[in-house]
Amino acid sequence: MDPYQENDRSRFFKSIESSFRGIEWARNLNRSLIEEYTGNGYGTGGTSGRVKYEQLVNLMNQTVDAYTMALVANRPRVMVTSVDPNLRYFAKQYELAVNRMIEQIGLEYTLKKWVLDAFFCVGIIKVHMADAGLVQIQPDRWMDPGQPFASNISIDNFVYDLSATKYSEVKYAGDMYRIPFADLKSGIFDPERIKDLTPTS
């Protein structure tokens, strides 16, 4: 590999590590607010295993429930229309298809979790293509066309470029997630980078 590229790669990963450490305060805040939200039944209640304090009325829990109900009470729906009379039939079919897809991917549950995460610190949703199953496109050829999907990203697994002064200027943003080891060896990733990796590492 070109030494300049290797140097850029090294600087990039150092920046990611620095940014991940830089938002540790947000992860700590998120944990403490969740502890308050769940009440005195959360965890062991301290090193002694006893409850730290008795909470008779959990006001934060009630507030979060009220906000969630107000912001994402039901599954979102779309309305598609057209000013061109010739396209109105297609628009209606497209509306039905989009609303069916929203139901299939359970978008309402993703949005509820998003609102809940936002209440405690920041809510993050990743929009991406997910597996949709294999479709036969030729007698001897199958492919997965994928389908639009939305996933919640925990602040514990999220990192972005902290050197930017506003979010529109960030150079990277990413999240960490697990993949099967077989997928890692499937040829998508650089063989030189993964040759020494094992399931335990």
Largest sheet, in brief, is: 2 strands, antiparallel
How large is the count of helical segments?
Answer: 7
Structural class: alpha+beta
Instruction: Give the overall pLDDT as a whole number.
Output: 85
Low-confidence stretches: none
Helix fraction by DSSP (H/I, runs of at least 4)? 40-55%
According to DSSP, the number of beta strands is 6
Neighbour order of strands in the largest sheet: 1-4
Radius of gyration: 23 Å
Helix-strand string: HHHHHEEEEEEHH
End-to-end CA span: 24 Å
Residue fraction in strands: 5-15%
What oligomeric arrangement do these chains adopt?
Answer: single chain
**Gross geometry:** extended
Give a quick rundown of the structure.
The protein has about 200 residues and is α+β, with helices and mostly antiparallel strands. Helix content is about 45%, strand content about 15%. The chain is built from 7 helices and 6 strands, in the order αααααββββββαα.
What does this molecule look like?
- The model has no long low-confidence stretch (mean pLDDT 85).
- By secondary structure, this protein is of the alpha+beta class.
- The strands form 3 sheets. A two-stranded antiparallel sheet has the order 1-4.
- Helix 3 (59-71) packs across helix 5 (107-120).
- The longest helix is centred in the N-terminal third of the chain and has 20 residues, at 3-22.
- It contains 7 helices and 6 strands; from the N terminus they run H-H-H-H-H-E-E-E-E-E-E-H-H.
- The chain starts with a helix and ends in a 7-residue tail after the last helix.
- 43% of the residues lie in helices and 13% in strands.
- It has helices at residues 3-22, 24-38, 59-71, 88-104, 107-120, 181-184, 191-194; strands at residues 124-130, 135-138, 141-143, 147-153, 158-160, 173-175.
